[in-house]
Amino acid sequence: MNFQEQYAVSPARQLTEIEQGLVWKKPASHKVSEEELRICNEIKRNWNRGEMKIANILLEGDAGSGKTQLAKALSANLGLPYTKVTCFADMDKSDIIGAILPVISSVQLEKLEPSEQAVLQALMPRQGSH
Ligand SMILES: Nc1ncnc2c1ncn2[C@@H]1O[C@H](COP(=O)(O)OP(=O)(O)O)[C@@H](O)[C@H]1O
Ligand SMILES: [Mg+2]
Question: How far is it, in rounded angstroms, from Cα 96 to Cα 99?
Fold first, then answer.
């Protein structure tokens, strides 16, 4: 059975080289579990069903029970990049999904108070001078 053919969720999506490199490849030692197949089927079945789309899965189990490898197997089966995020105490959602920062033209920036200029310059991505 070809898992990628069966479970690839967005075959039309063109992955970048970096993303492609993050799609896990199952080692020969990988054992497919009933849970892996059930989760893949449910994700695939609901992928284009709006609010029913499964975006998060909570895996509960003892250390060494195979949670991490199951997450990686989903990457391989669904054809999606695998990455991990380590949580910390004052973590914010912007640490994962990014944040919207102000962008202002250099002409507008020059009209601002020096203190405001300093704040915006610290926030804004570096741009070429023109
Ligand atoms: N489906 C599987 N087939 C083969 N080996 C597995 C499988 N799941 C886990 N393992 C192996 O078991 C060990 C623990 O798995 P891991 O996913 O790290 O557990 P957890 O994240 O739950 O602590 C790892 O060495 C992993 O390679
Ligand atoms: Mg783990």
Answer: 9
Q: Ligand 1: residues within 6 Å at CB? A: 29-31, 33, 61, 63-69
Q: Which residue, by CA, sits nearest to atom 14 of ligand 1? A: 64
Q: Give the pLDDT confidence of 83-109 residue by residue, as tens digits.
A: 998 999 999 988 888 888 888 888 988
pLDDT tens column, 6-16 = 999 988 999 99
CA distance 16 to 19: 5
CB count, 10 Å around CB of 78?
A: 21
